[in-house]
Design brief:
There is one protein chain. The chain is an alpha/beta fold. The chain is built from six helices and five strands; from the N terminus they run αβαβαααβββα. It has a five-stranded mixed sheet, with helices on both faces. Helix 2 links the parallel strand 1 and strand 2. The radius of gyration is 15 Å and the shape is globular.
Length: 163
């Protein structure tokens, strides 16, 4: 179901988190739960994965994660402030140690000149550490954009786990 590169990245992240006794929460919009699905496809992931939030709508981002309306209305759902707020909200609404969020335009429609198809914002946070955020414009179709978004999120989680 998952390609080898994605399986390997997920397996390595799970092993790293197990070794460091860290748990994960995800807050996903354009990936629709694929990050969590990738992790939980591996046996033993229950030792690491605490929970996942799929917050596809703006209302879900606000209600489930506490993303401020000001951030959504002021910057748009696909933005650095919203990605950061999603990660912070996920961490505060779970018992996890590290969080990652993703919000973007996976296409094929929905893109604009300011926010083109392939634009994805990520937020990641580990309790007691500085948050990290990334902005990417990935080429490709919907499946490709979502796949590389999952890989990016896994890499960000691994970076936080190694701190």
């Amino acid at each position: 179901m998952l390609d080898q590169e994605t399986q390997n990245a997920a397996h390595e992240l799970l092993e790293l988190c197990k070794a460091k006794k860290l748990t994960i929460v995800t807050a996903e919009s354009c990936t629709g739960g694929l990050i969590a699905a990738t992790l939980t496809a591996i046996a033993g992931s229950s030792d690491v994965v605490d929970r996942a939030f799929i917050t596809y709508s703006n209302d879900a981002k606000r209600e489930m994660l506490g993303v401020p309306w000001d951030a959504i209305l002021g910057y748009g759902a696909v933005s650095d402030p919203v990605a950061r707020a999603m990660a912070a909200g996920a961490l505060s609404r779970s018992s996890a140690d590290i969080a990652v969020s993703v919000t973007g335009v996976a296409g094929p429609g929905g893109g604009t000149a300011e926010k083109p198809v392939g634009l994805v914002h990520f937020g990641a946070l580990r309790a007691g550490h500085e948050p990290i955020a990334e902005r990417h414009v990935f080429p490709g179709d919907r499946d490709g954009i979502r796949r590389v978004s999952v890989l990016t999120a896994l890499a960000m989680l691994a970076s936080l786990a190694e701190r």
